[in-house]
C-alpha cells in the first residue's frame, strides 16, 4: 500500500533468515516511513544473541523501545525459554485427566525438568503461542541493581550506529535503560568517531549530535564501555563485528595466531558485518557489509530506499556511492524506505543515485545561468520578482489540483481556495530589489532552492540547502560559481520578510569563459 508516493511498511518485518527490520515509529518528511532499525541474528536459534543497527528519534523512543521489546519477547517465546506454568486451557485440560493426588507431583516434576533443561518437552504442559503469559524473573535490589537468575529475552550483544543524527541515536538511552530493567546484560556500542567533533561541539545547532553530547545522554551501567573515557567502541574501516549461536560455539576453531576461523562455523549459526566508511551524508557515516546469507549492505543514510538523501561533502559522497556500487551488493538495507531486494535493482538504484547528482548539478548551473542573464530567452528583461510570483502561482495551482483529486469524504480534503493576487508579496520583493544590494547576476540561496524543488515548504528548503550548498561549493572549487553576501528579502516559507543579509551565488562559468566575459566587459567600457 502507498500513502501518496510513499510505500507503507510494517512495524516489524523479517526480511531474510538473518535480518529483521524494526520501524522507528518516527515518520516524517525527512525520515519517510521512519528510521529502519535492523536486528541481525543467527537463524539457528531464536534465543541466539543479536546485533542491532541504529535506533530511533528521542521523541519516539518509548514507542520504538516498546515495539523492539515485543519482538524480543516473541523471539523468547519461539525459543521455549520461559516459565513453566499451568494456567492455559490446554494445560488445565491435560491436568484434569490426572488423579487429583498426582497433580501436584506432576507439576513439581515438570518444573524441575524445566529448570534443568529450559527447552525440554516443549509440547507438554508448557503454554505457547500469542496467548501465553510472561513471568519476569528479575528483581531490583535495595541498592538499585538488577539481578536475574533466568533471563527471558535474547541478548543484544552489539548496537552499531551508522552515524550521529538524532533519528538514529536518539532512542539509545531509553533502550539501554529498558534492556537493563529486563535483566539483559549491557551491550557494546559501536560508532565511527566524528572527524568534525570540534566543529559540532562549537555549533549550537549540531552540538546535540556530537559524540560528547551522545555520551552524556547514556545512562551509567547500561553498556560495556570501551574505556573509562570512551563509551563507544570505535569503528575502524575493515573491522568485523560478529556473533555466534552459543550452541555452536564449540565449532569455532582458531589458527596458530589465535584468529577465529569463522568460515568453519555454519552460516545458520553465525552473523557478522564488515564495517566500511562511507562519508558524505555526514563525516562519520559508515555502511555495513553482511558476510552471511544474502550478503546485503546496510547503507545508513548514504542511500535511501526511496527518494534522495542530503549530504555535506559532495566529493566524498560521490566516492562513497561508487564504493557501494563496486561492492555489487545483492541487497541494500537503507536506513529509510523499503529495502532493495536483489542485485539487479541494487545496481540500478546506486547508478540512479550517481546519475541524479549530475542531473542536480546541471539544474543548478542552468538556473544560475538563466538568472545571470540580463534578458530571458524571448528577449524580455530578467526579473526575479516575476519569477518568484510565477512560482507561487504554480505551487498554489498544484496544491489545489491535489486537493481536488481527493475523495469527497477524505478528512484532509478542504474547500477550494481561489488564486491569490500575491500583491503584498510582489510589493515586498520589488522593495527588496530596489533597496537591497543584490547584484543582478547573483541568486540568493533561498531562491535557488525554491526554484529547484518547486516548493516553499520551509523544512524541505532547509534540508535541501545542505545538498545544494555542497554542489555549489564543488562548483566554486572548479571556478564555475562565486559566493557572495547581499542584503535582500528574508524568505520564510510563503512569507516575504524584511531585508536581511543573505548568501548569494553567481555563475561565472569555466575559467576561460570568465576571462572572455571579463575581456568583453572591458572592451565595452573602452
From TrEMBL:
Entry superkingdom: Eukaryota
Transmembrane segments: none
InterPro entries: LACTB2_WH, Metallo-B-lactamas, RibonucZ/Hydroxyglut_hydro, Sec-metab_biosynth-thioest, WH-like_DNA-bd_sf
Protein name as catalogued: Metallo-beta-lactamase domain-containing protein
Domain (Metallo-beta-lactamase): residue spans on this chain: 34-336
Pfam families listed in its UniProt record: Lactamase_B, WHD_BLACT
Biological process according to GO: secondary metabolite biosynthetic process
Taxonomic placement: Eukaryota, Fungi, Dikarya, Basidiomycota, Agaricomycotina
PANTHER family in the cross-refs: ENDORIBONUCLEASE LACTB2 (PTHR23131:SF0)
